[in-house]
Design brief:
Helix content is 42%, strand content 11%. By secondary structure, the protein is of the alpha/beta class. The protein has a 7-stranded mixed sheet, sandwiched between helices.
Length: 260
């Protein structure tokens, strides 16, 4: 089966957004609301157990019992207000290019464009953030679609966003593969029947990623940061840089039943 598309997650895949992006923006949003809350790396890592910014705020407030007398309606309004403030602050970081792309992302997308493959974004982040990252950080990339968390009814690990991606691309699950960074994203891809390469981050390197076909620390660039191979279901000739040709050979051999 010929590969026709690549679907990319955003946070942790395109940009290592969590530690120095979203987390920083949340802390600034708390300050603007007059709260003295602060999410350090350890705290934020625990909150990443749920997908979605509003969901993490809700978990934080409920777990720490911060507003016991607040009604559900008041809580939801506060969550929405903080999240909107956080998104604005996060977008400002992106527009000022404070967060660099992860090594190998632009190169792999350019290789995909040259090969005539469709490129899609499937992220749990909101549409404002997803669109800003794509237009600001990757203006030369022709995205076939950008799907965000507020455009679906159920977020990852539910496969809905990847199933929508398949529908928009007009392809079958075996005709594409996903670049993910987390267990929940991987679960969503596999539930949609899509193969996956995982590029780990500080927050996901210790997660259970056994369902991935390939796991690397990063995609790597020939003249920049290079990656380390952590796992491959079968032979994957990796020397620090993941090229599109390698992935096409790998995934097309898998779908054709070969393991050479």
């Amino acid at each position: 089966m010929t590969i026709k598309a690549i679907f990319f997650d955003q946070d942790g895949v395109l940009i290592d957004t969590e530690k120095d992006g979203h987390r920083v923006a949340y802390n600034k949003a708390f300050q603007r609301e007059g709260f003295d809350f602060h999410w350090d790396v350890e705290k934020y890592s625990r909150l990443l157990s749920v997908t979605g910014g509003k969901e993490r705020l809700r978990l934080f407030f409920e777990t720490d019992n911060l507003f016991p007398d607040m009604t559900v309606s008041e809580m939801e309004k506060l969550i929405t207000r903080i999240h909107e403030c956080k998104t604005t602050l996060f977008i400002d970081l992106i527009e000022k290019q404070k967060l660099p792309l992860r090594s190998g992302i632009k190169r792999l997308m350019q290789e995909a464009m040259a090969a005539g493959l469709m490129i899609g974004i499937c992220t749990a982040s909101d549409q404002r953030s997803a669109t800003t990252i794509a237009k600001t950080m990757l203006p030369e990339i022709d995205f076939h679609f950008i799907l965000a968390g507020d455009m679906v009814g159920r977020k990852k690990p539910d496969p809905e966003i990847y199933l929508q991606g398949l529908e928009k691309a007009g392809i079958r699950s075996e005709e594409c593969f996903v670049v993910e960074d987390s267990q929940k994203g991987l679960q969503a891809a596999r539930a949609a029947g899509i193969r996956a390469i995982v590029t780990t981050t500080l927050f996901t390197e210790d997660e259970d990623l056994h369902d991935a076909d390939i796991i690397v620390s990063r995609l790597g660039d020939p003249s920049g940061k290079q990656g380390v191979l952590k796992y491959a279901e079968y032979g994957f000739d990796f020397d620090g840089v993941v090229y599109l040709s390698m992935l096409l050979d790998y995934f097309q051999n898998m779908t054709s039943g070969s393991s050479c």
